[in-house]
């Protein structure tokens, strides 16, 4: 999506600088958005055994931490070494994106340990992280209440620590709906030649203005 925003100003410049420059047809512009898959919450998904399968495509869905305050939502994904996994939560239980206060975690199935975690890197008290897989294999993404396993000290902890309970053995207490966005970008990104051509158009137009 951000790539598209980058391109648009270039196209505007190209269009205003010279009417003789042929802009690409819509069919020539790579489709960078609009193809997101929808994630549908299927409980129980609160352990690695019952984790929902995530296929690695750009995906978004509305999930929730259940009212009991002990809910965790797990996703299972296969990554190749070097793949960049990104997970973002946006709490939508209130208008300021602060409820529920989520934590997001990545767990390696190989080691059973938390390998990445974030608390408030997203909007409001939402969470956001990107993780580069060091080795190919199965990984899990978990979303829980932040006090289930405080994200600041979560890396290296066993996945069993994600149990829906805080350090005192009480429910983590976070409940409510949140938007989850997941994506995987491969370690080697093929150069989009059409995109390069469009960018070239913009550069050409800028040069002609001088
Ligand atoms: Ca769950
Ligand atoms: Ca849930
Ligand atoms: Ca948080």
Short description:
The chain is of the alpha+beta class.
Structural commentary:
The protein has 210 residues and is of the alpha+beta class. It folds into 2 domains: 1-30 and 192-210, no CATH class; 36-190, Jelly Rolls (Sandwich). It has helices at residues 2-17, 193-209, and strands spanning 37-38, 52-53, 59-65, 72-79, 84-91, 102-108, 114-118, 128-132, 137-145, 176-185. Strands 1-3-10-5-8 form a 5-stranded mixed sheet, with no helix packed on it. Strands 2-4-9-6-7 form a 5-stranded mixed sheet, with no helix packed on it. The radius of gyration is 21 Å and the shape is globular. 31% of the residues are buried. Mean pLDDT is 84; it is low at 1-19. It binds calcium ion (3 copies).
Write the topology of this structure:
Layout: H1 2-17, E1 37-38, E2 52-53, E3 59-65, E4 72-79, E5 84-91, E6 102-108, E7 114-118, E8 128-132, E9 137-145, E10 176-185, H2 193-209
Parallel strand pairs: 1-3, 2-4
Antiparallel strand pairs: 3-10, 4-9, 5-8, 5-10, 6-7, 6-9
Helix pairs in contact: 1-2
The protein binds calcium ion (3 copies).
């Amino acid at each position: 999506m951000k790539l598209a925003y980058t391109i648009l100003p270039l196209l505007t410049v190209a269009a205003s600088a010279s009417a003789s420059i042929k802009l690409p047809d819509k069919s020539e512009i790579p489709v960078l958005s609009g193809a997101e898959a929808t994630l549908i919450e299927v409980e129980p998904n609160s352990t690695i055994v019952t984790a929902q399968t995530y296929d690695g495509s750009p995906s978004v869905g509305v999930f929730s931490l259940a009212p009991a305050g002990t809910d965790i939502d797990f996703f299972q994904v296969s990554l190749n070494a070097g793949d960049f996994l990104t997970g973002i939560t946006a709490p939508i239980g209130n208008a300021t994106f602060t409820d529920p206060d989520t934590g997001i975690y990545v767990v390696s199935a190989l080691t059973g340990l938390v390998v990445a975690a974030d608390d408030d890197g997203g909007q409001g008290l939402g969470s956001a992280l990107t993780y580069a897989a060091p080795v190919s294999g199965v990984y899990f993404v978990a979303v829980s209440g932040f006090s289930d396993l405080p994200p600041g000290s979560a890396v290296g902890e066993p996945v069993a620590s994600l149990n829906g309970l805080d350090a005192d053995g009480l429910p983590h207490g976070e409940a409510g709906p949140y938007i989850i966005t997941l994506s995987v970008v491969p370690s080697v990104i093929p150069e989009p030649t059409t995109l390069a051509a469009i960018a070239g158009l913009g550069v050409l137009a800028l040069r002609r203005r001088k």
